[in-house]
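TL;DR need C-alpha cells for one chain.
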Amino acid sequence: MFYELNKCEKNPLREDIRFASVYPNVYKTAMSSLGYQIIYGLVNEREDSYCERVVYPSVRSLETNSPLRDFDIISFTIQYEQDYFNVLEILRKAEIPLRRKDRTDNDPLIIAGGPCATANPLPLSDFIDVFVIGEAEVVLDDFLDLYLDLKKDGRFNRNDLSPFLDIESLYISEFKNNAKIAVLDDMNNAYQLTRPIITQTDDEDLMPVFSNSIFLNVSRACTRGCRFCMSSYLYRPQREVEADLLVDTALKISENTGLKKINLIGAAVSDYSHIDYLIETLREKGFVVSTPSMRIESITRDILVSLRKSGLKTLTIAPESIESIRKKINKDIPDEKIFEVVRDAVDLGFNIKLYFIIGLSSSSDEDIVELKDFIKIIDSMKYDIDSNSKSSSRKAKVSIKFSVNPLIPKPHTPMQWNAYDMKDIKSKIRYLKKNLKGVDIKFDSAKMGLIQYVLSCGDRDIGELLEKSLTRKISMKEWKENAPNYSLGDELPWDLIDVSVSKEFLISEHEKMETKDQTPWCEEFGCYDCGACH
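>> reply
TL;DR here they are.
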C-alpha cells in the first residue's frame, strides 16, 4: 500500500513550465529532505508552473507518471556526493544526452542545487547546464521568470545561456563564471511547509526517515567554526526564525495535517537562542518534539528534560574525537562536558548515538589508542551502576551506539587543502575494530571515503570518471590517481564560487590547526571578520 496526501495536482497541459524536481536517492530519503520539499512548494505556488517529483531509481513523476523527457526543466537536489552516480544514471535511463554539449532545444534544461552543487559544481559541470548557488527562496523565482520570458519571446536557446549570467547566484557551466551564494536575509520570510506531503504506506522502505512529521526550520547556518565541517562555512551568517512565528507555523501545519510530531531543523538546533522557550511552548501545545542532532556545548539538563517530556527517545551528539584533536578542529569541548551530557541523558532514559571522525593528518598512533579508551568510558556509562551497592548491576539501562567515519576534506573549509590518507584511515579502523569488541560501533568505509573526497574536491575532469562508472567499475587505483593534492597557495577549482567567507580567513584557520588556537563563537564573542557579514 502506498498513498500520498497533500500532493499538488494541476493540469500539466495548462502550465507554461513543467518542472521536474528530481532527488537522486531513494524515496524515504527524498521525503525527509526539507530543501527538496521547499522547492516543491515554491514552484507549485506559481500560477504558471507545475512541479512534479521524480525519485531515484524511477524516471517518471509521482504526480502524473510522466517521463522525464516531457519536462521543460529538470532540477536535481544534490545533498550527497555519492548521489552524483545516480544523477548520471537517471539521465541515461531517461534517454537524455548525458553531456550538455550533446543536447538540443528539444531536450529539457538541466539544473542542480543543494550543498554539494553549491560548494563545488565542477565535477558535474559537463552534465548540468545551470547550478543554483545557495538557498532556493532567493533565486528560483528570478530564474523561472527569466526562463519564461525568454521562452515566450522565442529567445531561449539552450546552447546560449548567457542571459542567465545576469543572476549572480547562478553558475552557468558553459561560461565557467564567478557566482555568489544566495542566502535569505530575514529567516522570518523563509518558506515554511504548511501543507507537507504525508506518506501512507505499509512498506518500511518507503516510509520517510523522520516518518510523517512537521519540519520546523528554526535556523540556518552554523558559525561555531568546526574546521572540517562545510556546514560551518557555507551558508553564513547564522539566521533564526522568531520563536512565536515557529509556534504559529506548527499550529497551522497541525491543523492542515493532524500531525503532532515535530522535527526541529537547523545546522545547530541547540544553538537556537530561544530553544528552551520553543520546546516548552510546543510541548504545552501537545506536540512531540525531536531534533536530528544537538551540539554538545549548548545542551543543558533542562533542555534534555524538556525533550524527554515531549517524547524524544534518542539523543544524537558528535564528540568527533579526543580532546586534543577537538582543539585542532576548533571544537574545544572538555571531556567532562561530554561525560556530563551522557550521564544526564542516561539518567533521563535516552538512548544515545555518538559520531566520531578519524583521519586528521596530524593525528598519531597514541591518539587512536586514547580514542579507543574514550569510547570505552562512554560505553560503560550505559550500565545501571550504583556506587553505594556492593554488587552493581551490569545490565544496560539504555543503548549507546557509536559511528566512526573517515574525515573528508571539504571545499570552503580550512581543511580544503588537506589530503586524504586511505592507508592510515584503514589502519586506524582495523585497530578500533580489534580493540572495541562488544561495543555497538559501526565504521564507514575508508575506500568510500576516498571516492567521496575525489568527488567533493575534484575538478571538471572528474566528470570523465563519473561517466565511465556507468559502464564499468572504477578501480581504487583510478580513484587514487585522481585524488587532488593541493598546497596552501594553490588556486582551487571552487574559487569561482563566492560563499562570502574569505580565503584569507580560511588560511588563518588552517594554520591554527597546528597551534590548537581557538576561534571563539562569534554569536557570543563578537565578529572576527570572516567576511560573511559584509
